[in-house]
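User: Predict the full complex structure for these chains.
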Amino acid sequence: MLMIKLTSVMVEDQTKALAFYTDVLGFEKMMDFPVGEYRWITVAAPGHPDVHLALEPNVHGIEFQRAMFANSIPIAAFESDDLDADYKRLGALGVAFTKPPTDAGPIKLAVLADTVGNLIQLYQPTR
Amino acid sequence: MLIAPATFDRLVRARELLTTTDEHVAAIARTVRLSQFHMIRAFTALFGATPHELRTRARLDRAKQLLHAGTAVTDVCMEVGFSSLGSFSALFTRWEGASPRTFQRPAPENHGCLGMLAHLPATAILEKRAAR
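Assistant: Here is the predicted structure of the two-chain assembly.
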């Protein structure tokens, strides 16, 4: 059996990304150590330490990342248990949203900018 | 802050202009038809840096590429749009923590984080955990 326990997003600046993903989004730092001229950094949701998100340097993916962003395509999606509350909380912290909470069939979704080159979709199942 | 689709497109265009032209921020705001105040505020929320900071970051990233490639420091300075070697060196040192000359060394082979992790000894992560 294969399992998905690790995925990643490319980021423009790993230090800035770690601050945003922990201090603003509320994830917890799980790993952070130097690898060459960059760092291996992962975060996880509180209470879910078995699923890590790596914050990878975007050195080989800048064009892809820019194109996804310019076309308003989120690079990842995180589930929320209360999207309206998270929208309000993150908005108060100065986060830029490109889509407010919006009903989309079986989910409600919103889209935010992570300040390190990506749009991120937040969703909450409604059924 | 909620950024409307039309504003989003204008801000993406502003970022492109900042990194590909020498136009002043005020001129770019006019080009993308946003007030300068609104552009700076929304731009900073979207990209995590003011337009000026983003332009500086882009110039220094380009400078780092050229330095890695072995280009002479004075040529790098001119190439990335600085007119004075002194101000280029001072800014580079402040942002990068090392002078351009110190920074200039052969580029290490880079496989990306996932790739680089694969080259670590198998015990590296366990040792890191144990050290915490």
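The mean pLDDT of chain A is 96.
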